[in-house]
Amino acid sequence: MSNNNKTEDFFGEDSNFNSDKIRIEVPAQREPVYHERIPSAYDPMGEIYVRGRAMRTMSSGTMPWWVLIAGWILFGGLFLLVVSISISSISLAIIPSLIIAVIPISIVFRGTLAKLSAKKRKRK
């Protein structure tokens, strides 16, 4: 059996190391970082998930201003087109398409309110 376990072998004979003075710190176990796996947008369920995530991001107000303005132009233009068609045709059959066109407008409106309220919070 080897005598390599003695402290004199490592630190010299004039060292005053006691086993009482030696402290070993063990780092805490780190939790693994959760990376959300985004499914592929090429399969049908992945496309639904990616669209939902984009709409959630838009309604949360965390997107850049140019995305918000582009959303107003795109979805607002679609809504105005459907409203103009419904006014010109005066038909009740166009009401479901109006309801469908209101959904993206409400998402962009929520995003605009969230973006503006975030700016007000930053100013205070």
Spans where pLDDT lies below 50 across 5 or more residues: none
| Helix content estimate | 55-70%
Overall morphology: elongated
Count of beta strands: 0
Question: Helix/strand/pairing class, anyone?
Answer: mainly alpha
Q: What is the radius of gyration computed over CA atoms, rounded to a whole number of angstroms? A: 32 Å
Main sheet? none
List the helices and strands in order: HHHH
* End-to-end C-alpha gap: 71 Å
**Mean pLDDT across all amino acids:** 78
How much of the sequence lies in strands comes to under 5%
Number of helices: 4
Characterise the protein shown here.
It is built from four helices and no strands. By secondary structure, the chain is mainly alpha-helical. Helix 3 runs antiparallel to helix 4.
